[in-house]
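Here is the promised in-class demo. Please do not try to memorize the tokens; focus on the logic of going from shape to residues.
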């Protein structure tokens, strides 16, 4: 395995989701700390973002939040996360997510998470981002995305080679190897 020192994790802001997604996030957070991997994330205090940061902090790991200033102004930032970068807007935030990371991990989420992972795939397709993109497919949550991407390839909107840009895994413990 290439040495993974820092990853960015895209994940949900919603807290109204099934416990299984929180459990998967906690397991991933523990894996990252055990392997001394720093976590970059959106800086949120609730949903899977909050769970991820809480888990990493509880286990004495390193977590860095990146959040646009307007979200800080309305107190959305996680108050226990000491390492924060507040940026001008959502575009700058997405750019900063990719700076200096050794890989991207996507957990379950809504439109924000989907947008983030699809932008990363687009950048990778253009050779502007080169690191692994791993999608944690908890309980088949991302089966429809996998089907959509396969259809893009089958109908020649993308090349067979592009399938190598991402890896879907089923369990948090598989993420780091992927
Ligand atoms: P979603 O997957 O739609 O929940 O989106 C996650 C993304 O939404 C984050 O990366 C942020 O861009 C944004 N976001 C939405 N609500 C919040 C929140 N309460 N705190 C932090 N970020 C949020």
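The designed amino acids, position by position:
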């Amino acid at each position: 395995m290439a040495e993974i020192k820092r990853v960015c994790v895209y994940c949900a802001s919603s807290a109204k989701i099934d416990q299984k997604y929180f459990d998967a996030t906690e397991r991933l957070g523990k894996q990252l700390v055990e392997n001394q991997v720093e976590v970059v994330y959106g800086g949120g205090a609730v949903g899977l973002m909050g769970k991820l940061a809480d888990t990493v902090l509880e286990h004495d790991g390193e977590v860095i939040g990146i959040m646009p200033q307007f979200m800080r102004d309305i107190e959305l930032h996680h108050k226990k996360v000491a390492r924060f970068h507040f940026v001008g807007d959502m575009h700058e935030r997405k750019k900063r997510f990719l700076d200096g990371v050794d890989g991207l991990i996507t957990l379950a989420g809504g439109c924000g998470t989907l947008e983030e992972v699809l932008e990363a795939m687009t950048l990778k397709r253009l050779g502007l981002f080169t690191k692994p993109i791993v999608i944690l497919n908890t309980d088949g949550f991302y089966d429809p995305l996998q089907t959509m991407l396969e259809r893009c390839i089958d109908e020649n909107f993308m090349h067979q080679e592009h399938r190598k840009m991402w890896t879907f895994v089923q369990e948090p413990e598989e993420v780091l190897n992927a």
